[in-house]
Amino acid sequence: MSRPPLRLGILISGRGSNMEAIARQCREGRLNARVVAVLCDRPGAAGLHSARALGIDTHLIPWQGPTQRPAFEHAVDSVLAAATADVIVLAGFMRILSPQFVAARAGRILNIHPSLLPKYTGLHTHRRVLEAGERKHGASVHFVTRELDGGPLVLQSRIEVNPGETEESLSARVQATEHIIYPRVIGWLADGRLVWRQERPWLDGRPLDEPLVEDFSADRN
Ligand code: GRF
Known about the structure:
By secondary structure, the chain is of the alpha/beta class. Helices cover 31% and strands 26% of the residues. The protein has helices at 17-27, 46-53, 69-82, 99-103, 125-131, 167-190; strands spanning 6-12, 33-40, 58-60, 87-90, 109-113, 136-143, 153-160, 194-197, 200-203, 206-207, 212-215. Bound molecules: 5-O-phosphono-beta-D-ribofuranosylamine (GRF). Residues 12, 14-19, 47, 91-92, 112-114, 139, 175, 178 line the site of 5-O-phosphono-beta-D-ribofuranosylamine.
């Protein structure tokens, strides 16, 4: 029996290029999933416009500061419940969700982070990678837990840092890989290959103790 499409609620704060990559794959039938809502905390974010242009239901829930987090999360929850979202996809969403919010949705929130976690959690990863003289860099798709950028990893993209690379060029190259690995993980989830069991991810019936790594080293530009 075929599975019903996985219903995705995507949270963004900015450009929304990952959201767009996922939404396009859904629309093209390459993923057994559907973006049922895009939520954004920043008025004027480019991603809001691109989501609307794709005909996706969009919701602006302005961030009013950390003291208003409960009201913010309540509003997010209402939208996602009304849209009957199965999974929350964080795609360039710049706010930190509370431990309570995350714990209540264990195994149902994914994030993408622009580094080879556990290295370089937090902000400005590309700059810090260049400053440290790293030869390898990439992005990580992981389940979200209460540890910031610390939830179980599923899939990483790996690239080589080119000589003379700038923060901009590195960011663009990493982002290009994000648009491949994030839809891939969502596809695994949608197909029932990736599941959350015993507080950790399993892929194809085996616990994922180490992330899978997709090597993009051959793509040097
Ligand atoms: C990506 O680099 C992602 O890894 C990070 O924020 C950026 C979002 O980009 N979490 P976009 O909004 O999807 O274009």
